[in-house]
Amino acid sequence: MAVEGKTIDALSQFELSPVGGVFGWAVSFSQSNLFMVIAVVLTFWLMKATADRGAMVPGRLQALGESAYEFVAGMVRDQVGDEGKKYFPFVFSIFMFVLFGNLLGMLPYAFTYTSHIMVTLTLAVVVWVAVTVIALKRHGMHFFSYFFPEGAPVWLAPIIIPVEVISYLSRMVSLSVRLFANMVAGHVMLKVFATFVVLLGGLGAIGPFVAAMPLAVNVALVGFEFLVAFLQAYVFAILTSIYLHDAVHLH
Amino acid sequence: MNERDSFEERLRQARAREGLDKPVKGGPAPQSPWGFGLRAGVEVVSALVVGVGLGFALDRWLGTWPWLFLVFFVLGSVAGVLNVYRLFNPRPRSRARDE
């Protein structure tokens, strides 16, 4: 998959193919879906293990689950305030889904479902619709004052309102594109440098020495990708919290 | 109270509080110029995409090609600049804050 006829093929890692034999073909159950299921099962298992044990002095697994919980709970509390507590399950689900998607993609042979714009866009649309519905429920028609700042001259309304509406809609796009672009860029870079290792390694006697350079780059990149995996899940969740804050407080 | 404009600052505070900054210190930090540039670029492009998309859709619907497309292209650009302005300017917006 990495090297085919001495060319760099960095994008075939994102191709979907059905898994699970006949069943997979029948319902188009791709490896992307498989890893989504794995992510959900892992999240569920982690939280269940954390909640079941409930030891006063947590073990490693329980500490992991509790720190994830407290991390997101603290974020929601800080960003949205006390009214935001009831939206915590939503933010936590989004965070864990994105985090596990990014991290599972770091395993060899795994598929990164967050590297597909359709997946991230769907997540962003879910966030956007949820935030808009929450704002509408809390504020009713007053919500639309969000699109026209108080004190602005009325004759500017034909310009300000479309611009604000476009800005509001663009949250959806920027939220999804940020995650998608980060994951695709990271995995493409990994694959390109891994291909360099193979291509340069075949250069006779000096090959292995030259190939050590892209290999070193790849080692650094793997570490960097773990950082990006956490950071992007964090950014996705904190932006969700900030949008929730806007929806709850409306200004 | 918090404002979405001060996102970067609160991000830094939250990261410091949660001890997330420790592994970042050695490597390239997310606050690097590259990170800023990438964020700003994403904001501009996404607003432009929404504007152009809306213009296209309205033109197809109303059959006014290319006028609404041109109008919404400009509006999308303005919204992109507005997004970046809000990204960098932590000034709270002069808008009803009593709620």
Automatic annotation (TrEMBL), chain A:
The keyword Ion transport appears for this protein: yes
GO cellular component: plasma membrane; proton-transporting ATP synthase complex
TM stretches of this protein: 22-46, 87-111, 117-136, 143-169, 189-212, 219-244
GO MF annotation: an example: proton-transporting ATP synthase activity, rotational mechanism
Keywords assigned by UniProt, alphabetized: ATP synthesis, Cell membrane, CF(0), Hydrogen ion transport, Ion transport, Membrane, Transmembrane, Transmembrane helix, Transport
Record InterPro entries: ATP_synth_F0_asu, ATP_synth_F0_asu_AS, ATP_synth_F0_asu_bact/mt, F0_ATP_A_sf
Name of a matching Pfam family: ATP-synt_A
Localization per record: Cell membrane; Membrane
Topology relative to the membrane: Multi-pass membrane protein
Record family assignment: Belongs to the ATPase A chain family.
Its job: Key component of the proton channel; it plays a direct role in the translocation of protons across the membrane.
Identification of the protein by name: ATP synthase subunit a
Organism per entry: Neoroseomonas alkaliterrae
Lineage of the organism: Bacteria, Pseudomonadati, Pseudomonadota, Alphaproteobacteria, Acetobacterales
UniProtKB/TrEMBL annotation, chain B:
GO BP field: proton transmembrane transport
Pfam families per record: ATPase_gene1
A GO CC term assigned to this protein in UniProt: proton-transporting ATP synthase complex
InterPro entries per the UniProt record, alphabetical: Atp1_alphaprobac, ATPase_put
Bilayer-spanning residue ranges: 40-58, 64-85
Keyword field: Hydrogen ion transport, Ion transport, Membrane, Transmembrane, Transmembrane helix, Transport
Keyword Transmembrane: yes
Transmembrane helix is among the record's keywords: yes
Function of the molecule: A possible function for this protein is to guide the assembly of the membrane sector of the ATPase enzyme complex.
Family label: Belongs to the bacterial AtpI family.
Stated name of the protein: ATP synthase protein I
Source organism: Neoroseomonas alkaliterrae
